[in-house]
Specification:
Elements lengths: L2 H12 L3 H4 L8 H12 L5 E5 L5 H10 L3 E6 L13 E5 L12 E7 L10 H17 L1 E14 L2 H17 L19 H10 L2 E10 L4 H6 L5 E10 L6
Parallel strand pairs: 1-2, 1-4, 2-3, 4-5
Antiparallel strand pairs: 5-7, 6-7
Bound molecules: S-adenosylmethionine.
S-adenosylmethionine binds next to helix 1 and strand 2.
Amino acid sequence: MNQFTSGKVKTFFEEQDNYRDRKGMVHAEQDPVILEFMAQHADASSIVLEVGGGSGYMLDLVNLHVGPNRLYNCEIVPGTYRVQVNPAITLVGGDCLQLPFRSGFCDFVIIKNVLHHLVGGTRKQSKGLALQAVNELARVLRPGGHLIIVEQHHRHRLFADIAFWITMLFAKVGVGVPSLGLNKNVIVSFLTPAEIESYVRGTGTNIVVSDHAKVEIPFIYRVTILLKDLGRSLIIGKVEGGNQS
Ligand SMILES: C[S@@+](CC[C@H](N)C(=O)[O-])C[C@H]1O[C@@H](n2cnc3c(N)ncnc32)[C@H](O)[C@@H]1O
């Protein structure tokens, strides 16, 4: 990310209260699937890393439903989220583009709703950053470990391009129009489901769960920033090698 875009992301999330204290099933469709999957594949010695986990609500659910694990949350704005909802979570400051963990460090990596915030000066650069992040996530997983991605997608590349440039323009000018879904600190680079899956497969990770659901978007956002075909993807991949089931 460049200085402008990474400054925008940090400023936005430093000011967000809702990611600081949220608790519970925030993704009512995807979270139970993740927890059930992890309950089948994790054990008490598993190391679970969430990247961009905010207050740690998802790791708290993992702790509650899957059992005691070693839990890490790697956040770009750790000061904002220094109080995690579960004291068992170790909060680490870091960027998903260059994770501060050794290769093969963990058994599970979870990343929810972060990839579309990785923005460079152009769409092409932004997609390159999302790809770089997915490569980093796979790097820190041990062979046989699992990568769990929940991400907002856009089914139409052209409309996603236009949404990127509209949000970039408003961010550059420093103007937000909340009623139209435009925040002066938010630039969005949505990927298509196929793009996310191809990035995952490119790391040598086999996709074992793939679900792409449509989400309802308020009418005004659909027409102003062309988010009619926004949805939420859940992708779980297993890194090649190892013998974890
Ligand atoms: C939309 S919020 C999602 C929070 C949580 N994962 C969820 O789904 O509710 C994005 C989160 O990712 C963090 N984040 C943004 N860019 C990041 C980066 N490059 N590396 C690590 N975390 C990042 C933000 O601070 C924020 O907590």
